[in-house]
Amino acid sequence: MTASKRIVLSSDHAAIQHRQAVAAHIAAQGWEVVDIGPTTAESTHYPKHGEAAARRVASGDCQLGIILCGTGQGIMMAANKVKGIRCGVCTDTFSARMIREHNDANMLSLGARVVGEGLALDIVDAFLAARFEGGRHATRVEMIKALDG
Ligand code: RB5
Prior knowledge:
The protein is α/β, with parallel strands linked by helices. It has one domain: Sugar-phosphate isomerase, RpiB/LacA/LacB (Ribose 5-phosphate Isomerase B, Chain: A, 3-Layer(aba) Sandwich), CATH 3.40.1400.10. It has helices at 16-27, 46-58, 73-79, 93-101, 117-129, 136-146, and strands spanning 6-11, 32-35, 64-69, 87-89, 107-111.
């Protein structure tokens, strides 16, 4: 297993089943899954889970991250506050491909109350299969990075 196949997963209470389905799905593809929970359905606060996953990616411990909450929105907002993180919420496979090809996203966010498990797994596949195109997109991603301060 190479370091480039290591991915962090996290969610809040609203997305535990989806997260576990994603974990099993990508582990079967050879990814080393770092699932940082939570493991119970007890109500929790999505910002801390988004931040924890984002720090794993920002530090280089994991190449990519997938985070989930009810809508995917709140946990995405928290993750994007961490320097170096480019995370998008996706409800379709086209966007999941494009956020890597054009935006060099290093995290994907999913809404468990928005997309069913089957679609969520297709979105994950599209995200993981895509590669950053560079070129003119690199200039734009550098402009995003500059906003990190
Ligand atoms: C939890 O009820 C819900 O607010 C959360 O999962 C998420 O949708 C927030 O963006």
